[in-house]
Amino acid sequence: MTEPVIRAANIARKTGETDITLSFALDGTGETSIETDVPFLNHMLELFAKHGHFDLNVQATGDVHVDDHHTVEDIGICLGRAIHEALGDKRGITRYGNAFVPMDEALAQVVIDISNRPHFEYRAEYPSQTVGSFHVELVHEFLWKLALEARMTLHVIVHYGRNTHHMIEAVFKALGRALDEASSIDPRVTGVPSTKGVL
């Protein structure tokens, strides 16, 4: 009997700006333990994992006395690397994922291709530039580094909304659901889902 493949990864990254340890499991139950110096990002990562049914543990400290940029960016790098590693050879995956998620008045869409070709498109106009002390521009920074390191094509569209918190929350929930769909195993797929024979 073939042993089930465990699709998980552990990543550690320490620089002069941040110190991060992260563990990630694609086939989880949405369990999280997240402690960073950026409370709003903690909340978004919990939503991502919960709605994607991923297990995610993040311990991160950084130079937030400067600002949140380095911590948010480096967590995106680590999570992207963990996703890429957890996907392994990508045999049998669905490859594409698409999720629309409403959050009250806001509607976000995330579309993913686990393509091994990093690309990021972002269409979002927020009514405010901060949520509490969190700078909204960091959402772009996080998602771009995530797509780059996960080596996936990622399109994020916020169709509309009035509340910036709701709009970003919808994005992270949709990210979880789209990645769950794209990374799921399709029993009809033999090898990898590409006419090239490789992803």
Q: What keywords describe this structure?
A:
199 residues, 34% helix, alpha+beta, single chain, 4 helices, 4-stranded mixed β-sheet
Number of helices: 4
Sheet with the most strands, sense and barrel status: 4 strands, mixed
Strand order of the largest sheet: 1-2-4-3
Order of helices and strands: EEEHEHEEEEEHEH
Q: Describe it for me?
A:
With 199 residues, the protein is an alpha+beta fold. It contains 4 helices and 10 strands. A hairpin with a 3-residue loop joins strand 1 and strand 2. Helix content is 34%, strand content 30%. Helix 1 runs parallel beside helix 4 and helix 2 packs parallel to helix 3. It has a 4-stranded mixed beta sheet with strand order 1-2-4-3, with helices on one face. The model has no long low-confidence stretch (mean pLDDT 96).
Q: What are the SSEs and their pairings?
A:
Blueprint: E1 8-14, E2 18-25, E3 32-35, H1 39-52, E4 55-62, H2 69-87, E5 96-103, E6 106-113, E7 119-123, E8 130-131, E9 134-135, H3 137-150, E10 153-160, H4 164-183
Parallel strand pairs: 3-4, 7-10
Antiparallel strand pairs: 1-2, 2-4, 5-6, 6-10, 8-9
Nutshell version of this structure?
The chain is α+β, with helices and mostly antiparallel strands.
